[in-house]
Amino acid sequence: MSGESWRLVGDWIGLGFFVVLIVGIAVGLKVLSKPQKRTAEEFERNAAEGITMLGASMNALNELMNPPEAKAKEVIVQMKEGRFQKKKREGKANSAEQGESSE
Fold it and tell me: Is the pTM of this model over 0.90?
């Protein structure tokens, strides 16, 4: 083989390398993009274990920088637990009872 034919073979090898590289990247991204199948129990366990000092400090910093969002999170938790504005409703009920008893 002459020098030019070796250069042609080298070009094909280089082209093949890049094709394999691109296909490998595409397949790897496809595999990584699939969501993991896990139960809610596994998710909750991992979420509880995943709280680190750095994560906690970032949450605290976020609450300081954005107080309305922190209040919104607290309201969501209260609504899920069924105690949102419970004191306010109890206060209205007590004042209505006091109003009725004074008449």
Answer: no
Per the model's pLDDT, the better-predicted residue between 5 and 45 turns out to be: 45
Structural domain including 9 reads: 1-34
Q: What is the pLDDT of residue 20?
A: 98
Q: What confidence score (pLDDT) does residue 101 get?
A: 53
Domain count, the chain: 1
| Interior/surface letters 8-46, b for 16+ CB within 10 angstroms, e for the rest | eeeeeeeeeeeeeeeeeeeeeeeeeeeeeeeeeeeeeee
DSSP E strands in 4-47: the ranges are none
**How far are the Cα atoms of 11, 27, 38 from residue 30, in angstroms, in the given order?**
29, 5, 19
Alpha-carbon radius of gyration of the chain? 31
